[in-house]
Sequence to fold (340 residues):
Amino acid sequence: MKKVIAAIVLVALAVVFAFVGCKQKKEEGADIYRIAVIPKGTTHIFWKSIHAGALKAQEELKAAGLNVEIIWKGPLKEDDRESQIRVVEDFITRGVTGIVLAPLDDVALRMPVKDAVSNGIPVVIIDSDLKSDDYTSFVATDNYVGGRKGGERLAEILGGKGKVIMLRYQEGSASTMNREQGFLDVLKEKYPDIEVVSANQYGGATTESAYQASENLLAPLRTADGKLTIDGIFCPNESTAFAMLRALEDSDLASKVKYVGFDSSDRLVQGLRNGQINGLVLQDPINMGYLGVKTVVAHLQGQKVEKRIDTGSAVATPENMDDPKMKNLLEPDFKKWLNE
Fold:
């Protein structure tokens, strides 16, 4: 009987110690915020700027006494949906505190986000929307408005008339689809003398695929003497804008057609300065990454956050590109935060 009682006591003590140990472990890790930031890709300057903004938020939150760790991981190419899904699933398994996600596809990422939330991991969506209500907040440019701004700029420099084309990005990317729709809508609503000759071609996820698509799009629009039968071009993101610029240069057509792009890079800024590009619709990716992290941490601390947060957009032109505010958007200082 004594042996039985002793055994019961030992089991009881083991349970108590296990409970105390688990409780202590939970308390020790309770104020550690491990935030996974998952971009669409990792090569474009836009995503490097998102990363910089996330690290800026991490530093600011640490200065405020919070233990925040940013874990940055995403697919290499911006068309690798399966890779991004695996990244999200891996972070769920690892038990991160929160996720900041730029979904590659507005449908394909719904279930991984649902799974994260079901596992107690809040998700803040950035850059591109998701057809879901499971996320905590959507922090992004109003892309539809950005597309309208691109259309307004192109119409302005064309004097409200002419023939234009648009090279799309890729299907499933909500951010660029909204830009494309905004561009088409503003021309249809306000500029009846502007004809959209082509708006159904896609550049794809890489600059090389977009370059090939640009060449294919321009080829039938050239006359026998090499001139273009169109007056204006719009491209909805960094990779298509850069690829189209390359195609125009290679055909000796740069500066001979009005051209408006979206986003920024060193080469696009150079094109704006030398008159090959007439306008760039700019987001604020550093602010987007910054607010994405700040928003998910605020939610984790029990604060109320807005369901949608607009990070704004502006149009850079050759005339205003050296204004301090515009210069900061054109050439974001991401290297400072990434130690490049």
Remarks:
- The chain has two domains: 32-141+285-311, 143-282.
- The chain has a mean pLDDT of 91.
- The chain has twelve helices and twelve strands.
- The domain at 32-141+285-311 is CATH 3.40.50.2300 (Rossmann fold).
